[in-house]
UniProtKB/TrEMBL annotation:
Pfam family membership, one: TerB
Origin species: Mesorhizobium plurifarium
Ranges for domain Co-chaperone DjlA N-terminal: 31-136
InterPro entries: DjlA_N, TerB-like
Designated name of the protein: Co-chaperone DjlA N-terminal domain-containing protein
Length: 141
């Protein structure tokens, strides 16, 4: 079965990349998460572990696809700036917007230190999403 999946992947492309490419909101969220990873000027292993966990658990992206998804975001993400990505979330329900904010906060906290640039990015995102910082510490409903 794995061989058939590999052959299908050659002809159809990576399933995780297809999932991201076919969903503009998911693409925007992953780009925002990646921007949070880069906000402090370095990519830590702990931030990447959290990013991979979010991809797998929250979005159902197979572990085997995550490197290809990152490559896709690097190749095509330059076409979308942070404001454009956030604009896709404004019309979504508040719980979905809170989820983005929580994921960004999880990545910011992953390396056990909050850089000022990470705090600024998170604060600006919360403002644009009309989310209170209190919502990040409340348990998910």
């Amino acid at each position: 079965m794995a061989l058939l999946d590999q052959i299908r992947s050659i002809f159809d492309g990576d399933p995780g990349v297809r999932k991201v490419a076919d969903d503009p909101v998911l693409s925007a969220e992953l780009l925002m998460l990646f921007r949070m990873i880069l906000a402090d000027g370095s990519v830590s292993e702990s931030e990447m572990v959290v990013f991979r966990r979010i991809c797998k658990e929250a979005f159902g992206i197979p572990e085997s696809s995550i490197d290809s998804v990152i490559e896709y975001l690097n190749d095509y993400g330059y076409e979308t700036n942070g404001s454009q990505a956030i604009a896709l979330f404004r019309d979504l329900d508040v719980e979905r917007r809170k989820l983005l904010a929580r994921h960004m906060a999880d990545i910011a906290k992953a390396d056990a230190r909050l850089a000022e640039s990470e705090v600024k990015l998170l604060r600006r995102t919360l403002d644009l999403l009309d989310i209170s910082p209190v919502d990040l510490v409340k348990p998910e409903s």
